[in-house]
Amino acid sequence: MRFPSNTRFLVAMTMPLVWLSAPARAQNGGATTKTLTGQAAFTDFSQEHPGVRRRITIADLPEPKPEESFDGHDKVVAQPDGAWPIAPAGFKVERYAQGFEQPRLIRTAPNGDLFLADSAAGKIRVLRGVNVDGKAATNETFASGLDHPFGIAFYPLGSNPQWVYVANTTSVVRFSYKNGDLKASGEAQAIVPTLPGYAQLRGGGHWTRDVAFSLDGKRMFVSVGSGSNVDDTDNNPRELHRANVLEYTPDGTFVKIFASGIRNCVGEAINPTTGQLWCSTNERDKLGDNLVPDYITSVKEDGFYGWPWWYMGPHQDPRHDGKHPELKSKVITPDVLLQPHFASLEMTFYTGSLFPGDFRGDAFAAEHGSWNKHRPAGYEVIRIPMHNGQATGEYEDFLTGFVTPDGKAWGRPVGVAGGKDGSLFVTDDGSKSVWHVLYTGKPEQQMGKGGD
Length: 452
Prior knowledge:
Blueprint: H1 8-21, E1 35-37, E2 53-55, E3 90-98, E4 103-108, E5 114-118, E6 123-130, E7 136-143, E8 151-155, E9 163-167, E10 172-176, E11 189-192, E12 209-213, E13 220-224, E14 244-248, E15 254-260, E16 265-270, E17 277-281, E18 293-298, E19 303-304, E20 310-311, E21 315-316, E22 336-340, E23 344-349, E24 363-367, E25 380-384, E26 386-387, E27 390-391, E28 395-399, E29 413-418, E30 424-428, E31 433-442
Parallel strand pairs: 1-2, 15-19
Antiparallel strand pairs: 2-28, 3-31, 4-5, 5-6, 6-7, 8-9, 9-10, 10-11, 12-13, 13-14, 14-15, 16-17, 17-18, 18-22, 20-21, 23-24, 24-25, 25-28, 26-27, 29-30, 30-31
């Protein structure tokens, strides 16, 4: 095997990868032949390697163990010399852009431009093209002065949108837009002037808001996370209309709570095969290392997903023992259960043709990593296999390597977006970078590029 230059650290990280994951991976670099199940499916960063699949079911869940809860993995270290994201065989990884304050969600415009929410900076940036060195050829500020922007959507759907919608923490606004615009041509127009949680913005709670449109363009879905870990929502103004997906019309008229009990649907995506809304969701903490699983799921209209009283179907949170027994039978079990404390953020469905054929129609999701687990997990991008638009229930490690051998994270994936050429872009607010994942078919490219 031939290694890129300056990869001493990377080789140390990757040699176990080849030995551990090769038996589970087919020659195309995508499909696997083995899935870890039961207790073997629960993992930490040291067991996350491209090509490894896992399937967690509600039968695998342990009893709550609040005494095992842990608070500690929240510090990001500088990217070590030679460290680089690790992709499956046949893929290579390049650093596409860097130097942002807080690169978060990323979405692809119909013309192929990448719109990036630099949330702490209050900006939406536009990245375009690739230089000979693999870097973004254009990096411009589209809009500034926003309030922790996160969600981005183009409307109407199709090849010629007229608006870019941006979900701030406190509102949804839109900018007039035509293909190729690098800067907003006018001021932000408030579509939803006040989102739930406005009064508590500075008092904690989840601040990200995403926005997506139904395929027919008639519905606008806005996700709003909870204001707490597991506070009772009964007569609780802080949680009013939170931990929900809210439905509006595209002009900002509130319609209804589309789905409830979703603690924090950070990333929304519309399944292009079925037209269903999907959510990448952060579940609650402080019930032990292996509770409660984060999840990725299709979202049923008027569905209830359990928070705060129940979780994963008919499991009652012990902190709300005896509360709302009438809801037990109504709790929906999500489609794909992930590792607890993964902090699953943006997701996207792969519609490109650059990657091997069995990737088409699958989903990708960014796992930011979390603090409530003794051995850190997450800090990766995962692949969610789909069949005819339906999840198989498994997930697969796709892009790893963001943690040092001694368990210190230098990278934290947040956003995923498919490029117009079929490649994949990943934002990382640890190294404050955007990574570019391409498929070459050459096995020696699996470890990416050895440096900038």
